[in-house]
UniProtKB/TrEMBL annotation, chain A:
CDD domains: Rieske_NirD. Signal peptide: none annotated. Keywords: 2Fe-2S, Iron, Iron-sulfur, Metal-binding, Nitrate assimilation, Oxidoreductase. This is Nitrite reductase small subunit. Pfam families: Rieske_2 (PF13806). Coiled coil: none annotated. InterPro entries: NirD, Rieske-like_NirD, Rieske_2Fe-2S, Rieske_2Fe-2S_sf. The lineage of its organism: Bacteria, Bacillati, Actinomycetota, Actinomycetes, Streptosporangiales. GO terms for biological process: nitrate assimilation. GO terms for molecular function: 2 iron, 2 sulfur cluster binding; metal ion binding; monooxygenase activity; nitrite reductase [NAD(P)H] activity; oxidoreductase activity, acting on paired donors, with incorporation or reduction of molecular oxygen. The keyword Iron applies. Transmembrane segments: none annotated. It comes from Sphaerisporangium melleum.
TrEMBL record, chain B:
It comes from Sphaerisporangium melleum. Siroheme binds at C656. [4Fe-4S] cluster binds at C612, C618, C652, C656. Residues 531-592 form the Nitrite/Sulfite reductase ferredoxin-like domain. Belongs to the nitrite and sulfite reductase 4Fe-4S domain family. Its cofactor is FAD; [4Fe-4S] cluster; siroheme; [2Fe-2S] cluster. Residues 1-266 form the FAD/NAD(P)-binding domain. It catalyses: hydrogen sulfide + 6 oxidized [2Fe-2S]-[ferredoxin] + 3 H2O = sulfite + 6 reduced [2Fe-2S]-[ferredoxin] + 7 H(+). This is assimilatory sulfite reductase (ferredoxin).
């Protein structure tokens, strides 16, 4: 199975370097996992409908690397994670903080390749 | 002994009940003028709004009492010791009790014979008959009873007028300002109010006021005060007061020692009492005296809280004083006033119109030193010990975590059109950290005129108690089922933990089992408390705060080996801070092997039951507070609830364990235990209220079982017991869990048995389950690399997190 998340920030033209993270089965639905990729902390989520998302693990409001431990849900149609520290919600699609649109966390391309979850931080 | 009672109203009924209840063996004969058994006159008006005569009628007296109905006593022959009735019947007595009550005062105006009074069932039947052929009605008298009568006329479909001689309504209870507020309420209901004028005359179908106003009215009701019915006593030559009333001493005895007078006909200490509670006290005193006791009547509480025409009206204590503080909001229709001693320290009394919220809080404090500034007390809403949104000045800091003032919140509410707490949190950041100011936010919203929706969040239209019932009744076991069938979307950080808690309360099981794992807040998800730098703290359970030296040493060794910061908590246990996610299972393993278990410091669950050393060691102790604290902590450990639960047990009234600041606090007495509920430390401190006294061990446990289960079922999300108890009322709570007024106690008991039987240690269960253990890694792809962002420095010989850089726009 190969699922590619279409991602707004994926630059076309450059070959994407994918880093394997874990088995797809290791991700619990609606729960995140932290990964360390090229020195960066990434939070990877699997939503209820099976989609995958990867965002930065750092919570800009507290400075702690805890986004992967937030509660996953929806705000309207938007899949979101809420920061466990002070509960601000971030869009998993755009990384934007829905409670403070001037703040955002980075997002990364993510896919499942042969049963393995892979992200790209290039 | 032959006792004869004249009059068969509430007071007489109470006297008979008290006498027979104390095992009186002579004969009691009650002579009542009304053609029916005694009924609850206080609830008279409900007879016009659906209650039946049976609903109002008191249970017939048991034992040696004979009741003769429709017998009016016309004469007392004190020499022969007999009373004579209108029908010529003679009843001999050894002791005579007059409980003849009072009669409405009918002013001597021309045409008064066309008018009705409002005192008995017969009066109400007559009014109802007359109303069926009329379209308008006039009530003469704008006091408490007058307004009640006016509401009744309105309910009978009449266009209703109230005429009050004084310049404002309820002149005896409220001053001009309160009267104005009340008038607003009354007029909004469609009643016409005429103040400052009396009656000139009554003509058939017409009333003419002293100022010339003419009102077409088919029904006229007098409610212009009451007069004690002392005519019999007068005829018998007993001493009467100058303005009426049968003079009695504090034993309720008249000037003839064989004759007592009680209730509204009695003049005691220079006062005639027009409320039923003091009348009942008089009945108790007389019963005791007749049976040879020493009871005395020490004065009555004239406090009253009622709903008149849908408006809360309450007054308590003395209605005058050297100083007073008034709060008035004519728009909201609220008027509150407190009377205070000249040194501004002692509460003397008060009046509330439109919001009786402070009443229950303040009435018990009459004559005592004030616990807060009078204005704070006045503003206390239904839920508050002196804190309400309306009360805060604009520059008050409402959310101290995020430094948000009331002014900022109000600006946001108005400029952004916010309608709920979530909106305020989102736009101001207030309430997004510790959350303790959330009730204040709700109260500010309410004060700004925003009606609150009960919806939990955007995903559920229901409140927490409603969701609880849905889950319970429908037997729902997963969040997915609940949100698919009763909600929308996929949930959020508000509804998911709330539902997780409901599922845990109802179904038990491990909080990390299956889909439930995804609902948990990070604390429950890692069975530890998240700290500011992303590490967690670990708190093993130390029931009752009792710990062996061996176990203390283990905790010390674990902390040393894992490099943790240690601190003694307020709950008599030890907090180990600074653990990284991947260290948690290793730390638990060491603790569990030494006999520790999870302390649930991370959960909305029972935290600790503190105790003092109690009777085992303390010179003053009267019960084993440590043993009880341990038993309670072990019984309720792991119980998931709408918010955290704290408890304490003190070994005597000196209260060294500070039990009254807890959700449920227990204080030992010579005879057992006193149980206090609804206390709180924290943001909004509150002393717990006494729920029950002198309980045995078993009674104590059963009462707490029910208290906790009823709270879990009916409280709102994140509503502490203090707010919950205040919201539902202590008396109601007692009715439900002691009197079983809802018939659910067996259910509550069974629920608690299920909890106790199903308990297991979450730490150990996690250690035993490789699947769950796999979550406790720093990185899925580098489980052995600790989070590089976590760095410590040293302070006072222990670790301390290095401050993290915050980068938000
Ligand atoms: C509409 C209404 C609302 C009220 N609301 C409240 C309230 O909210 N709170 C509150 O505390 N109080 C309230 N009260 C007052 C309360 O009802 C009285 O305090 C209480 O009824 C007094 O009881 P009593 O037995 O002393 O007198 P009564 O209730 O007056 O009973 C006296 C009885 O004696 C009978 N009687 C009198 N003379 C004779 C005689 N010679 N021979 C035989 N029988 C005789 C009378 O017919 C009557 O049945 C209310 C009263 C009314 C009318
Ligand atoms: S509360 Fe009473 S029994 Fe407990 S320590 Fe204090 S004085 Fe002793």
């Amino acid at each position: 199975m190969t699922i590619i998340q279409n991602h707004p920030e994926t630059r076309t033209g450059t070959a994407t370097a994918w880093t394997p993270i874990c088995a797809h089965a290791d991700l619990l639905p609606e729960r995140g996992a932290a990964a360390l990729v090229a020195g960066r902390q990434i939070a990877v989520f699997r939503t209820f409908d099976g989609r995958l998302f990867a965002v930065g693990n750092r919570d800009p409001f507290s400075g702690a690397y805890v986004i992967s431990r937030g509660i996953v849900g929806t705000r309207g149609e938007e899949p979101v994670v809420s920061a466990p520290m002070h509960k601000q919600s971030f869009s998993l699609v755009t990384g934007m903080c829905l409670d403070d649109p001037a703040t955002a966390i980075p997002t990364y391309p993510v896919r499942v390749h042969n049963g393995t979850v892979e992200v790209s931080v290039a | 002994m032959r006792i004869v009672v004249v009059g068969y109203g509430p007071t007489a009924h109470r006297l008979v009940e008290s006498l027979t209840g104390r095992g009186f063996t002579g004969t009691i004969t009650v002579l009542g003028e009304e053609p029916r058994h005694a009924y609850d006159r206080v609830a008279l008006t409900s007879y016009l709004t659906g209650a039946t005569l049976e609903d109002l009628t008191y249970p017939a007296p048991e034992g040696p009492a004979t009741v003769r109905l429709a017998e009016r006593v016309t004469e007392i022959d004190r020499d022969r010791r007999v009373v004579v009735t209108a029908g010529g019947h003679e009843e001999p007595y050894d002791v005579l009790v007059l409980a003849t009550g009072s009669a409405p005062f009918v002013p001597p105006v021309p045409g008064a014979e066309h008018a009705f009074v409002y005192r008995t069932i017969d009066d109400l039947n007559a009014i109802r008959d007359a109303a069926s052929g009329a379209s308008a009605g006039v009530v003469v008298g704008g006091g408490l009873l007058g307004l009640e009568a006016a509401d009744a006329l309105r309910g009978l479909g009449l266009a209703t007028h109230v005429v009050e001689m004084a310049p404002w309504l309820m002149p005896r209870q409220v001053d001009e300002g309160g009267g104005a507020v009340l008038r607003g309420h009354v007029e909004r209901l469609g009643l016409s109010v005429h103040t400052g004028t009396g009656l000139n005359r009554i003509e058939p179908d017409k009333v003419v006021l002293a100022d010339g106003t003419e009102i077409d009215a088919g029904v006229v009701v007098f409610s212009a005060g009451i007069r004690p019915r002392d005519e019999l006593a007068f005829q018998a030559g007993l001493e009467l007061g100058e303005r009426g009333g049968i003079v009695v001493d504090d034993a309720m005895r008249t000037s003839d020692p064989a004759i007592y007078a009680i209730g509204e006909c009695a003049l005691v200490g220079g006062m005639v009492y027009g409320l039923v509670a003091p009348c009942f006290s008089m009945a108790e005193v007389a019963a005791d005296r007749i049976l040879g006791g020493e009871a005395v009547f020490t004065g009555g509480d004239l406090s009253a809280k009622l709903k008149l025409l849908g408006v809360d009206v309450a007054s308590f204590g003395q209605l005058s004083g050297a100083l007073d503080v008034t709060y008035m909001d004519p728009v909201a229709g609220v008027y509150k006033k407190l009377f205070i001693s000249d040194d501004a320290r002692t509460l003397l009394g008060g009046i509330c119109v439109g919001d009786a919220g402070p009443y229950s809080l303040l009435r018990p404090m009459v004559g005592r030193e004030l616990s807060a500034s009078p204005s704070d007390l006045l503003f206390a809403g239904a839920g508050g010990a002196g804190l309400s949104g309306a009360d805060f000045p604009d520059d008050a800091q409402v959310c101290s975590c995020n430094n948000v003032t009331k002014g900022q919140i109000c600006t946001a509410i108005h400029e952004l059109g916010l309608t709920d707490v979530a909106g305020v949190k989102k736009c101001t950041r207030a309430g997004t950290s510790c959350g303790s100011c959330v009730p204040a936010l709700a109260s500010i919203l309410a004060a700004e005129g925003v009606a609150l929706s009960k919806a939990l969040c955007e995903h559920f239209e229901y409140s927490r108690p409603e969701l609880f019932d849905i889950v319970r009744v429908r037997g729902i076991t997963t969040f997915s089922q609940l949100i698919t069938e009763h909600g929308r979307g996929r949930g959020c950080d508000i509804c998911k933990p709330a539902v997780a808690s409901i599922l845990a309360s109802l179904n038990g099981g491990h909080v990390l089992e299956g889909e439930q794992a995804a609902l948990q807040d990070t604390n429950d998800h890692f069975l530890a408390n998240l700290q500011k730098n992303g590490t967690y703290s670990v708190v093993p359970r130390i029931p009752g705060g009792e710990i062996t030296p061996e176990k203390l040493i283990v905790i010390g060794e674990v902390a040393r080996d894992f490099g943790l910061y240690t601190k003694i908590t307020g709950g008599q246990r030890i907090d180990l801070l600074g653990a990284r996610v991947e260290q948690l299972p290793k730390i638990w393993k060491r603790l569990v092997d030494a006999g520790f278990e999870s302390g649930h410091a991370y959960g909305k669950a029972l935290r600790t039951v503190k105790s003092c050393v109690g009777s085992t060691w303390c010179r003053y102790g009267v019960q084993d507070s440590v043993g009880m604290a341990i038993a309670l902590e072990l019984r309720y450990r792991g119980l998931r609830s709408p918010h955290k639960l704290k408890s304490a047990v003190s070994g005597c009234a000196r209260e060294c364990a500070e039990a009254r600041s807890k959700d449920f606090g227990i204080i030992a007495t010579e005879n057992g235990w006193n149980l206090y509920v609804g206390g709180n430390g924290g943001f909004k401190p509150r002393h717990a209220d006494l729920l029950a006294s002198d309980l045995s061990d078993d009674e104590l446990v059963r009462t707490i079982d029910r208290f906790l289960m009823f709270y879990i079922r009916t409280a709102d999300r994140l509503q502490r017991t203090s707010a919950w108890v205040q919201a539902i009322g202590l008396d109601y709570l007692r009715d439900v869990i002691v009197g079983d007024s809802l018939g659910i106690c067996a259910d509550l008991d069974a629920a608690m048995e299920r909890h106790v039987g199903g308990y297991f240690d979450e730490w150990r269960a996690t250690l035993d389950d490789p699947d769950k253990l796999r979550r406790f890694v720093s990185f899925v792809n580098a489980p052995d690399t600790p989070d590089p962002s976590i760095v410590f420095e040293t302070e006072r010989d222990q670790i301390k997190p290095v401050l993290l850089e915050v980068t938000r726009a």
